[in-house]
Design brief:
Immunoglobulin-like; mainly beta; 36% strand; globular; 2 domains
Length: 290
């Protein structure tokens, strides 16, 4: 009996070893041919209530699998229309793909603006494509004052704004911060946006709109002039900025799938965004005794 059991276990053991060796020996290299991504038009630009030369950028996407950077699209016909006025943009000869309005152009609160980008030779094959987008300029509050506070305990500068929210309707804001006339919030991640859920129709009473670490290379100092631009934006542009900032952050978990493209208001398969919005601003000088 013991001999039969021993033979049975021995047989099962050799079968298991044979099975493992069979799996180990059945290895074969598999080459996966990843198709190149198709080229898309990328359009981004703004029209504000400030009187200045507004810009529109027109580029084409590079091949993701070849690590190609975006390339400029030259020779497009770019126009901004409000139903009454036509603003023709001119391409910058030194910066191809960047198109500018005249310096006396500005937007008006309550008007809708349509961007037309025509004559785009996306694939450099002679086939021309057109794109368009629409955005409305919403009203914005005018700040009464700007306050900069330094917290030594955390080594952090806080920028606060005091303003009256204009109405009981839902409003959306973007904040741009300048240090001595130079844009400090000069990256997508540093742009701050918010809705007015906590102060709808009320006085903001000094809400924090920007934070700067004291140990950063471009931190604030006493004597600096800090300017805050308060921008009244649409809900859709607000959501676009949130989605764009989210897609720029590292994915969690680390090996998760790539984030989806943020929304766009452009037609015909283009990506990017055309935003029209109102702007008001306020400034303060950081006191020497702060």
């Amino acid at each position: 009996m013991a001999t039969r059991l021993a033979r049975a276990y021995s047989h099962k053991f050799f079968m298991l070893v044979f099975f493992i060796l069979s799996i180990a020996s059945c290895t074969e290299r598999i080459d996966i041919d990843l198709d190149s991504t198709y080229t898309r038009c990328v359009i981004y630009g703004e029209l504000t209530t400030d009187t200045t030369a507004h810009w529109i950028s027109v580029t084409r996407t590079g091949d993701y699998f070849k690590n190609e950077p975006p390339s400029p699209v030259s020779g497009a016909v770019v126009t901004i229309v409000d139903g009454e006025n036509f603003h023709n943009l001119t391409e910058d000869a030194e910066n191809p793909g960047n198109y500018y309005t005249n310096s006396d152009v500005y937007g008006v609160v309550g008007k809708s603006y349509t961007l037309f980008v025509d004559g785009v030779d996306l694939l450099n094959d002679g086939n021309l494509t057109s794109y368009e987008a629409n955005s409305e300029i919403k009203p914005v509050a005018s700040p009464d004052s700007i306050e900069v506070i330094y917290q030594s305990q955390w080594d952090i500068w806080f920028v606060n704004i005091f303003a009256q929210d204009p109405s009981d309707t839902e409003d959306f804001y973007k904040f741009l911060v300048y240090q001595n006339g130079v844009l400090h919030s000069d990256s997508l991640r540093s742009i701050q946006v918010t809705d007015d859920a906590i102060f709808n129709g009320s006085y903001t009473n000094g809400i924090t709109v920007y934070v700067v670490r004291g140990d950063s290379d471009d931190t604030f100092s006493t004597g600096d002039t800090i300017t805050v631009e308060l921008c009244g934006i649409t809900q859709d542009y607000y959501k676009y900025l949130i989605e764009a900032q989210s897609s720029a952050r590292p994915s969690v978990p680390l090996f998760g799938g790539p984030p989806a493209n943020p929304r766009t208001n452009l037609s015909n398969g283009a990506i990017g965004y055309f935003a029209a919005y109102s702007v008001s601003s306020g400034s303060t000088v950081i006191p020497e005794d702060l």
